[in-house]
Specification:
heterodimer, A: mainly alpha, MetI-like fold, two-stranded antiparallel sheet, 11 helices, 2 strands, 1% strand, globular, B: alpha/beta, D-Maltodextrin-Binding Protein, domain 2, 2 domains, ten-stranded mixed β-sheet
């Protein structure tokens, strides 16, 4: 009885600790950043190295970066996941090799991706410091997470679905489209979210690829500063930039939170529509 | 057969992208009548250069000034390799960097900082050397509390480190550091958060932060108070020029930008970044 009680207390404490930490973080950002946050802050260009003015070009650059990364990485990731789960035996050498490579890639520090992106996209491909270089670097970084979660999602679909689909004479493509992908949708969305999260919060990989320029991007060949790079610069390199850094961090967290909620909502709707109509 | 077709198709796509992208990139940077200036280098100079660039763009609507960061050494390398039109270096050029042209746009001093709670008010040259080489490891030995010293050093590639080592005649391999930091603010935050830390940072930012409630204080160096004023009148011994570096004699838009960056028109920007403007 007392052991049970202890366990309950411990579990509650852990949960409280985690939410407490989150709330502390959020309050800290609100206290220090809320003063600076306003519509003007969201719609203006930065001034005085970011101490005053707004972050409009930086939010735009971040959105373009994440968009490029997801547009490139999502189809590639999904295709690889389908190949690994539906068209390769899990124990084959090829499948194992691909999965091992993905695990290694997923654990590579982002600065390595930054250096790779700088060497490959900026210099070798001649893209220079540009949103395109940054977005492609982010795509490389997000790919392992996307594939991993998509693979887990597809594997969690029961084999009975595949057998039943085959028995009904559905092609593998049809089974995938109408049955397996909707079943795996929450995992796919979660993976996408993790990918967007990692891409949107990235600093090290971007400072040498998409760069430091805080002007409103005119094309995707322009250099553009990501929100996290902006926050890092204000906090670590600009004296008196703390308030703006907190405000920018608040915007970043709110953005990620919004995207997260939207993605989760969409998945729920999509899944219900697909599976229940069958 | 099917596999082969897929493979060939894939290769064609990759090849086409490869051929297509660089061309597009060149077109984009060479829009008719549009000129692009790329600056890379010192993280200390970058915010100032970006501000100067913004004002320059306002005067020249056909010019885009792109400022990238990464450290003085990178600025020198990029200007050598042609990746950047102008390098930014927060130090004078070294002997092995001859052949490059450098133009000072501002001056900055480097001061020793300790936590505000630290009772030590001054350290002489030998004491600083002994602290950084690990011969003195406790504040008690230099008149402070009986606490172990946390030595904060700069990361390789930053010119603040090189200047500091040069001034005290130290080798970086001889420095026994506990914390390695990158940018100025990081150094200030590290020392403000650790009552036993000692570090060295740009005097301008340290003075600003000390006046705005950061728990740090600047120590005098060789008996001269570490202040922007003393950097300005040349009395402070550890000061450095903030330079723009070019590969060849500047001409055209590069020349216009450098002249603008050294002119009276940007004095307010220089001071807003807590640096000392050049004499005009």
């Amino acid at each position: 009885m007392s052991k049970d009680f202890l366990a309950t207390v411990m579990i509650w404490l852990t949960a409280l600790l985690i939410s407490g930490f989150f709330l502390y973080l959020l309050t800290d950002m609100l206290i220090h950043g809320l003063d600076r946050l306003s519509w003007a802050y969201l719609l203006d260009a930065p001034l005085d190295a970011g101490r005053s003015g707004g972050i409009a070009p930086i939010v735009t650059a971040t959105a373009i970066l994440v968009l490029i990364a997801i547009i490139v990485a999502a189809p590639l990731g999904l295709a690889t996941a389908v190949l690994l789960t539906e068209f390769t035996r899990q124990k084959s050498h090829f499948g194992r090799f691909v999965e091992r490579s993905l695990d290694v890639l997923a654990s590579v520090p982002s600065i390595i991706f930054g250096l790779f992106g700088n060497a490959f996209f900026c210099l070798f491909l001649g893209l220079g410091f540009s949103l395109l270089s940054g977005g492609l670097t982010l795509a490389c970084m997000a790919l392992p997470i996307l594939i991993r979660s998509a693979v887990e999602g597809l594997r969690s679909a029961p084999d009975e679905y595949r057998l039943a689909a085959a028995a009904l004479g559905m092609t593998r493509g049809a089974a995938l489209l109408h049955l397996l992908l909707p079943t795996a949708a929450p995992a796919l969305a979660a993976g996408l979210m993790l990918g967007i999260g990692r891409a949107g919060a990235e600093t090290a990989a971007l400072i040498f690829t998409s760069g430091y320029v805080d002007r409103m991007p005119e094309s995707w060949f322009d250099s553009g500063r990501a929100l996290s790079v902006h926050i890092y610069d204000l906090a670590m390199n600009v004296p008196g930039g703390d308030a703006s850094a907190h405000a920018a961090a608040l915007v970043l967290v709110l953005l990620l939170f919004t995207i997260n909620s939207i993605a989760m909502g969409l998945t729920r709707r999509w899944q219900r529509g697909r599976i229940h109509s069958l | 057969m099917k596999k082969l077709v897929t493979l060939v198709l894939l290769l064609v796509i990759v090849g086409a992208t490869w051929l297509f992208i660089p061309k597009k990139a060149e077109q984009a940077s060479n829009k008719p009548g549009m000129e692009r200036l790329v600056l890379t280098g010192s993280s200390t100079v970058a915010p100032l250069a970006a501000e100067i660039g913004r004002r320059f763009e306002a005067l020249h609507s056909n010019v885009r000034v792109d400022v990238q960061t990464g450290g003085s050494s990178r600025g020198i390398n990029d200007v050598r390799s042609g990746l950047a039109d102008i390098g930014m270096a927060s130090r004078a050029l070294k002997e092995n960097e001859s052949g490059l042209f450098s133009f000072t746009i501002a001056t900055d001093g480097i001061g020793m900082i300790v936590n505000r709670a630290n009772p030590v008010t001054a350290l002489d040259r030998q004491q600083i050397i002994d602290i950084y080489t690990g011969k003195i490891t406790d504040w008690q030995a230099v008149g402070g509390n009986a606490d172990p010293i946390t030595v904060v050093n700069k990361a390789e590639g930053h010119s603040t480190l090189e200047l500091f080592l040069h001034h005290f005649d130290l080798q970086n391999s001889a420095v026994k550091a506990h914390v390695i930091i990158g940018d100025n603010q990081q150094g200030i935050k590290t020392v403000a958060g650790n009552p036993d830390a000692i570090g060295y940072v740009s005097i301008g930012s340290a003075e600003y932060e000390a006046q705005h409630d950061a728990a740090i204080k600047l120590l005098p160096l060789d008996g001269v108070a570490a202040s922007v004023e003393n950097v300005q009148n040349g009395a402070f011994p550890l000061a450095r020029p903030l330079n723009l570096v070019t590969r060849s004699e500047p001409a055209g838009i590069i020349k216009a930008f450098i002249e603008f960056a050294r002119s009276r028109q940007v004095d307010d920007l220089v001071m807003a970044q807590y640096f000392v403007p050049v004499a005009h």
